[in-house]
Amino acid sequence: MDFIDQAKAILESSKKQPDDMCQNVDTIYSDIMKKSNYKIEGISDSILESYIAAENKADFESLFYLLTGVTFEYYLHKCEGTIQRNVAETELRIIQIYLFKSNKSRKNSLIIQTDAPKNKIRTCLRNGYSLSLLSMDCGIKNIVNNLQEMGYIVRILYAPNGKFDKIKRFSCKEKYNLADYDMKYVLYHEKVVMELYNKVFCQNLKNPKSLTLEILEGTANQLGIFAIEINQFYILTDDATRFSLGYRDFRKIVNYYGYRIYRKTTASGDECYRFVFSEKLLEHYN
Predict the structure, then answer these.
(1) What sign does the CA torsion over 101, 238, 42, 32 have?
(2) Contact by Cβ (8 Å): 188, 230
(3) What are the pLDDT digits (tens) for 126-155?
(4) For residue 162, how far is the Cα from the chain centroid?
(5) Are 162 and 156 in contact (CB under 8 A)?
(6) I need a surface site. Which of 40, 126, 131, 147 has the fewest CB within 10 A?
(7) Is 18 within the bounds of a domain?
(8) Is residue 68 part of a domain?
């Protein structure tokens, strides 16, 4: 069906609208875009396939720029970078995991070669933290077994008290700390944790004092919070993006509770947000 005549008629009518009309075709388009689901799996492939099939590539590129505000060339560049990072992340690489109570000592760390993505490694550490408290050996077995059960390759290169290669042979750029998933200090941040939870999951929980420590720990884990200390905690930028929260969104929420927010880079090379509350708030809790 050809919509050229209808489009021409609408365009002519649109030009005759008064400037102060509360709704014109621009706001209709804006409303449609807001309701669109951009997180559908495979949407990028569909865009690329449509471009390849288009008879007039220049018109497609112009329309893409009109709809997105960026050039199609920029979009392709971003896609290439993301794919290259994803491929690199899932190739076999050497990583180091500081075990519980290791104080970041290399001798008390686990060094493995694996193709597990970073998010799967974090999930494994987060879910298996409690078992690691039993003993260092339990922690090692739990990490290795969980990653293998997920279908990933795991080769132990070094483990404490194990008959493996000398630790000095390995240079690890990607590092994790098992202690980052200790939730014992979550009570110091209960108000802001619950406020973030309400924002992300559209809840209305207003009395964190009535919640048990176990529930608060579970809530913090759902938000991807890690490295909790008495005066600070962290959230990965990737997790914030998954929750559709940016720096300004966080700042609006946490400033009310006396927190400052900083951008940091983790030992594994990932961008994250660091939340630090003021000395005044620390005195209030004590």
Answers:
(1) positive
(2) yes
(3) 887 877 776 778 888 889 999 999 999 999
(4) 34
(5) yes
(6) 40
(7) no
(8) yes
